[in-house]
Amino acid sequence: MTGNALPTRTGDQRVTRLRVIRSEWTKLRSLLSTIWCLAATVALLVGVGVAYASLRVARPPADPSAFDATAVSLAGVQLAQFAIGVLGVLFITGEYATGTIRVSLAAVPDRAVLLWGKAVTFGVAIAGLAVPAVVVTFYAGQAILSAEHLDTGIGAPGVLRAVLGSALFLIAVGLLGLGLGALLRNSAGGISALFGLLFAPQLVLGLLPESMSDAAYRYLPTPAGAAITAVHSDPVTLGPWTGFGLFCLYTAIVLGLAAWRLRHRDV
Question: Please, are residues 225 and 242 in contact by the beta-carbon 8 Å criterion?
Fold first, then answer.
């Protein structure tokens, strides 16, 4: 009895970080949720920014010197963060829902490397979309505001940092969603946790005495992270880079917990 010989595989078949990234990129661009969430992100960024700029032109401020033209253009960032965060959750929970996570873990035995590959792939992909999107949104808003001479330039103090900082904030929120999805392994649970982490602390502080809430507000995830998107620092929030650094710390903690669970708990 003779059997058919299997073809001999040639070349280096080791699992490397670059190959993991390539694999994760294939997964990300093949997901239908990627198309919808990224489309929603762009629509919210540009649509809300343009709509709000048009509204402010129709209703000019009484004191133009206190008008923040950059904040008007980037008003959609606060809504777009949820589309990016949801995509981060779905990027990994989709594999748990379909059971394909077992295939991924079989192909990449080092589970930390798998999560690292997902984070790098997702972060780079979001950066490729967010940076041009916020720049286009800024210039579109300023073009509308120029009708009432309310516009500002990208070279004005703090403006470039706020524009690019908006993209950084979106990337960090997306990675936070990815970490929550990997930690909870459930789409509904991950999305609920994302919304809860970004919104619930502010609601809880609203029930506390004003002296306590004002002291703690600046350290909450959303106010801390969003500080980098503002041209002028708010007295009740941390500085732009300090606040963003704190938000990145929150994200790193969630990703660290997700990596620990991925390595120590079965699928």
Answer: no
In a domain, 204, yes or no: yes
Here the tokens at position 191 are 């999305």
- Residue with the two structure tokens 């994302």: 194
Residue 22 C-beta-side C-alpha neighbours within 13 Å: 6
Please choose, from the candidates 46, 39, 29, the residue with its C-alpha nearest in 3D space to the C-alpha of residue 133: 46
Q: Which residues fall within 8 angstroms of residue 135, CB to CB, at 6 or more apart?
A: 163
Question: Is 7 a member of any domain?
Answer: no
What count of other Cβ atoms lies within 10 Å of the Cβ of residue 64?
A: 11
Q: Which domain holds residue 42?
A: 17-264
pTM, two decimal places: 0.89
Q: Is residue 152 assigned to a domain?
A: yes
- What's 67's DSSP letter? -
Task: State how many domains the chain has.
Answer: 1
Q: Is 63 exposed, middle or buried (0-12, 13-18, 19+ CB in 10 A)?
A: exposed
CA distances from 182 to 122, 209, 219 (A): 13, 36, 24
The answer to whether residue 8 is domain-embedded is: no
- Whether the CB-CB separation of 229 and 76 falls below 8 Å is answered with no
> What is the full per-residue pLDDT of the chain (267 aa) written as tens digits?
455 554 555 555 677 878 888 888 888 888 888 889 999 999 999 999 999 999 988 887 777 777 888 999 999 999 999 999 999 999 999 988 888 888 888 888 888 889 999 999 999 999 999 999 999 999 999 999 988 888 888 989 999 999 999 999 999 999 999 999 999 999 999 999 999 999 888 888 878 777 778 788 889 999 999 999 998 877 788 899 999 999 999 999 999 999 999 888 766
Query: Using the 8-state DSSP alphabet, how is residue 209 labeled?
Result: -
